[in-house]
Amino acid sequence: SGVITIDPGYKNSGSCKSEVTFLDGELGILRYRGYSIEDLAEKAHFLEVSYLVIFGELPTTEQLVQFENDIRKHTLVNEEMKNIIDGFPKTAHPMGVLSALTSALTAFNPKSVNVENEKEMYEAVCKTMGKFLVIATWTYRKSMGFPLNYYDNTKGYVENFMRLMFELPTGPYQADPVVVSALDKLFILHADHEQNCSTSTVRMVGSSHAGLFASISAGVSALWGPLHGGANQAVLEMLEEINKDGGDAEKYLSKAKDKNDPFRLMGFGHRVYKNFDPRARIIKKAADEVLATLGVEDPILEIAKKLEVAALEDEYFKSRSLYPNVDFYSGIIYRALGIPTDMFTVMFAIGRLPGWIAQWKEMRENKEPIGRPRQVYVGYPLREFKGVDKR
Ligand code: CMC
């Protein structure tokens, strides 16, 4: 009833109340459950932050050990899932496969669909954290034609990610601690970002009481787009293109400013941040450290730096408050760590998983109503039907 206001892209509409993440786009502040992203990225580990985001408090040592153990219990994925993976062509994009496999988990874990009490909720959380990591790496193993790996219970979550990805039957894989720690930090920086496109999708799908796996599968699809998580892949492809084209950053800056050219500077701009993205600041520092420690000299990084400096001084970017976002630097680190470009958005998904879970859980616990936006109809008024012979 009443007047319907439309707000395309929900630029000024809140969809819920949330206690998970605080974000001030003007000041460039990001906090999970009241803790600053700077503190968490520097002092905590990914599973610790996941626990915080999902359950609301930092875990005690006991709670953390329990959480890690409970996740570990759920890292075996049904063998039949392998048949599904085998059905995909090797060339399939890992995000498409990840979304399909996450949805397929529902078939093998029907109990996680209707979460009715705290115990079932906790189990669904641990299951999702365990299985999602494994299937995320399987999308890569499949594309490479490698045999699928299993979780190693003697190793941590992030270290397992590297092993699951890269260990071959020819011998054990030793993850470089520098790499593991950089990845841990990247996952923390991605853990939640309030009502972004994929998270809103997870909440919207979940609001019909669809289960956690189905809701997260929808979140993966939303994240895939180049305006959202897919930007990290797009940034690297853009930098590679500039490099091939002679490394002229100014030329691409001009293209981005040209309103007749659809090209946008990928990794720049944000719906909410009208100041430096605090995550980009942390990632930029981490990128420098990782590249120095691993001894990587990457011409792509030089181009990224040139682009950043040029854009930050440019009137077009300044007047529109377009700053580098989290995706601008993450791809450079992933590349230095040996992660293939088409897996970048999957990395984002692994990091964002606790946020999606936390928001789905909050939505269910708050007993939020089904999401059902209205519209303003602008089509034809009533028309007279004419039979096909009269059209
Ligand atoms: N390059 C050139 N111009 C831009 C860019 C860009 N990257 N981003 C925004 N603009 C311009 C845009 O053309 C518009 O100009 P005008 O006012 O003259 O029409 C103005 O800035 C405002 O842009 P908008 O598209 O209305 O802003 P939005 O809030 O709808 O979009 C965005 C936000 C992130 C989708 C957009 O900035 C963009 O496309 N950036 C590139 C893709 C990207 O890096 N995405 C990652 C986002 S951060 C993390 C994540 O979600 O994954």
UniProtKB/TrEMBL annotation:
**Record's keyword terms, sorted:** Acyltransferase, Transferase, Tricarboxylic acid cycle
Q: Does the keyword Secreted apply?
A: no
- Annotated membrane-spanning segments are none
Signal sequence range: none
What reaction does this catalyse?
Answer: oxaloacetate + acetyl-CoA + H2O = citrate + CoA + H(+)
Q: Which Gene3D superfamilies match?
A: 2.20.28.60, Citrate Synthase, domain 1, Cytochrome P450-Terp, domain 2
Pathway it works in: Carbohydrate metabolism; tricarboxylic acid cycle; isocitrate from oxaloacetate: step 1/2
Recorded GO MF terms: citrate synthase activity
Q: Which family does it belong to?
A: Belongs to the citrate synthase family.
Please state what the protein is called: Citrate synthase
- Look up and give the organism this protein is from: Flavobacterium polysaccharolyticum
